[in-house]
Design goal:
Order of helices and strands: EHEHEHEEHHHHH
Number of strands: 5
Strand content: 5-15%
Structural class: alpha/beta
Distance between the termini: 36 Å
Shape: elongated
Radius of gyration: 18 Å
Number of helices: 8
Strand order of the largest sheet: 2-1-3-4-5
Length: about 180
């Protein structure tokens, strides 16, 4: 790794990880991912650790998506439900012990994926159908666009609901609304 940055407003998490990393001869540099030019300065050999909690501005999701395209990204999430909508090289919980967080940092540096039992793997079609459903599209509209039968869309949608722990569109909307509410409260 060329540079490893940590972006969090949580001073305890930042200083704790920086100190633990130093004990392992790893240098973590504090960063602000919304600082102009920061993301453009990253290259594939860099890594960024971002802590997301209820005080994190919604725009950070766009920043993390851009970072994830440029280099390795580790997300430390306060809200376990965010795992459904976040994409990164490594995702862990802020409720993890410091030892577990350092294990995740090690995985980030080794280019290995951290197995996360909370992670839900949706197929490409399931992701599209979920996104379109959350955007208010009806089954018939989704079926027409994807050139498949409405019954197939219903089946994919039922699989998504099962994986996410809901049984209806309203349950999934509730999950989305709860996630967004916790991000803006």
């Amino acid at each position: 790794m060329k540079n490893i940055y940590i972006a969090t407003e949580n001073a305890f998490l930042r200083s704790g990880l920086i100190e633990l990393a130093q004990e392992s001869n790893i240098t973590l540099q504090p960063a602000k991912i919304d600082e102009p030019g920061f993301i453009d300065s990253l290259d594939k050999d860099d890594a960024v650790i971002v802590h997301i909690d209820r005080n994190t501005p919604a725009g950070y999701f766009d920043y993390t998506a851009r970072i994830n395209e440029k280099c390795r990204l580790m997300l430390v999430l306060n809200n376990p439900n965010l795992i459904y909508i976040c994409v990164a090289s490594v995702i862990t919980s802020s409720r993890s012990s410091l030892k577990e967080l350092m294990r995740a940092v090690g995985m980030l540096m080794s280019n290995k994926k951290l197995e996360n039992q909370l992670r839900v793997n949706l197929t490409a079609k399931e992701k599209i159908i979920l996104r379109e459903t959350m955007n208010g599209q009806k089954v018939d509209q989704i079926a027409k666009v994807l050139n498949m039968s409405p019954k197939t869309v219903y089946t994919h949608r039922a699989n998504v609901f099962s994986k996410l722990g809901g049984s209806s569109v309203n349950a999934i909307y509730s999950l989305k609304n709860r996630i967004m509410k916790e991000m803006t409260v």
